[in-house]
């Protein structure tokens, strides 16, 4: 007769404590008191007939039995969580949870969503606009659109579009600064959400690509690219604009990119989902739609001199 399993609450207490190696941190995660968590682990040790932790002065460490149990409980609770999330989708209709950065959501996705809704009224889209890289497995996300360098092992990963950067401003400011050498007299606005790019695609890099010295002085910084874009639309200054986010404002003439030098990067947009998820009809429909939108909206390449950021990196 197989051994009777211990209570699930005791195993969950052990799993949390083994991951944190702290009863206090594990108790905070589970929303219980340290004393209650300690009681659950004591119950588990009595059930097993062996100690699972060595209690030290201000820490704990796993015993040999604890080290044997920890990987299985971790994997078991992850599998239970995944099964539960999958079960919740059964009979819930075609709901598609999509995450993307706030700027991409507001400047690229949102203006186009009515077309997806017209094509697929049976699919309910739910958006999570977040700079934090949500976990597709744990955060109930069906599709993620991310900008950066691929590190997508084990996931379905579909490249969407590359990016270039060039100064963008209102037509009035472009008339005031017709030459790149005049830019030091303008207000240069900075976007901190792309600070992770390496090599950087920032103002010093662009000035080097244009053969100019970076001017002294400081300008305003924005943590979100869409806020910087809105500031540029108001005439507050000049941004090193991203082609993907500014395409609409460039097309309607609200902003212009008057200079012929653009920085390029190996970072790019891609669509991520669980491996094999493209077999789900709603995910397949979204993939086909967004790829078609990108192809249909892709303008002719401007007559720029495209400079890889790596060529001007220091």
Nutshell version of this structure?
The chain is an alpha/beta fold and 314 residues long. It has three domains: 8-89, Arc Repressor Mutant, subunit A (Orthogonal Bundle); 94-162 and 268-297, Periplasmic binding protein-like II (D-Maltodextrin-Binding Protein, domain 2); 163-263 and 302-312, Periplasmic binding protein-like II (D-Maltodextrin-Binding Protein, domain 2), CATH 3.40.190.10. It is built from eleven helices and eleven strands.
Topology:
Elements: H1 8-20, H2 23-30, H3 34-48, E1 53-55, E2 60-62, H4 64-89, E3 94-100, H5 102-109, H6 113-119, E4 123-129, E5 143-148, E6 155-168, H7 171-176, E7 188-191, H8 203-209, E8 221-222, H9 225-233, E9 238-242, H10 243-251, E10 261-274, H11 281-297, E11 305-308
Parallel strand pairs: 3-4, 3-5, 7-8, 7-9, 10-11
Antiparallel strand pairs: 1-2, 5-10, 6-9, 6-10
Helix pairs in contact: 1-2, 1-3, 1-4, 2-3, 5-10
Walk me through this protein's architecture.
The chain has three domains: 8-89, Orthogonal Bundle (Arc Repressor Mutant, subunit A), CATH 1.10.10.10; 94-162 and 268-297, 3-Layer(aba) Sandwich (D-Maltodextrin-Binding Protein, domain 2); 163-263 and 302-312, Periplasmic binding protein-like II (D-Maltodextrin-Binding Protein, domain 2, 3-Layer(aba) Sandwich). Helix content is 40%, strand content 22%. It is built from eleven helices and eleven strands. It has helices at residues 8-20, 23-30, 34-48, 64-89, 102-109, 113-119, 171-176, 203-209, 225-233, 243-251, 281-297, and strands at 53-55, 60-62, 94-100, 123-129, 143-148, 155-168, 188-191, 221-222, 238-242, 261-274, 305-308. The strands form two sheets. Strands 3, 4, 5, 6, 7, 8, 9, 10 and 11 form a nine-stranded mixed beta sheet that branches. A two-stranded antiparallel sheet has the order 1-2. The longest helix has 26 residues, at 64-89. It starts with 7 loop residues before the first helix and ends in a 6-residue tail after the last strand.
């Amino acid at each position: 007769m197989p051994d009777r399993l211990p209570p699930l609450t005791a195993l969950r207490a052990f799993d949390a404590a083994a991951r944190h190696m702290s009863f206090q941190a594990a108790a905070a995660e589970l929303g219980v008191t340290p004393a209650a968590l300690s009681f659950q682990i004591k119950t588990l040790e009595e059930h097993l007939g062996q100690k699972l932790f060595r209690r030290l002065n201000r820490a704990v460490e796993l015993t040999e039995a604890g080290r044997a149990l920890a990987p299985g409980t971790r994997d078991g609770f992850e599998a239970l969580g995944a099964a539960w999330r999958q079960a919740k989708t059964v009979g819930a209709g075609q709901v598609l949870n999509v995450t993307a950065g706030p700027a991409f959501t507001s400047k690229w996705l949102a203006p186009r969503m009515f077309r997806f809704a017209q094509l697929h009224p049976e699919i309910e889209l739910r958006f999570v606009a977040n700079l934090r890289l949500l976990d597709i497995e744990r955060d109930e996300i069906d599709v993620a659109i991310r900008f950066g360098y691929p590190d997508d092992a084990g996931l379905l990963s579909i490249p969407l579009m590359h990016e270039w950067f060039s100064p963008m401003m209102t037509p009035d400011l472009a008339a005031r600064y017709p030459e790149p050498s005049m830019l030091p007299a303008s207000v240069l606005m900075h976007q901190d959400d792309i600070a992770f790019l390496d090599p950087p695609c920032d103002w010093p890099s662009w000035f080097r690509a244009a053969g100019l010295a970076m001017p002294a002085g400081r300008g305003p910084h924005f943590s979100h690219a869409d806020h910087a874009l809105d500031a540029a639309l108001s005439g507050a200054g000049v941004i090193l604009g991203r082609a993907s986010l500014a395409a609409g404002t460039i097309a309607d003439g609200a902003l212009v990119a008057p200079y012929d030098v653009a920085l390029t990067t190996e970072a790019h947009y891609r669509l991520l989902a669980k491996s094999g998820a493209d077999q789900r009809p709603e995910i397949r429909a979204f993939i086909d739609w967004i790829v078609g939108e990108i192809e249909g909206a892709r303008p002719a390449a401007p007559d720029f001199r495209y400079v890889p950021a790596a060529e001007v990196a220091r």
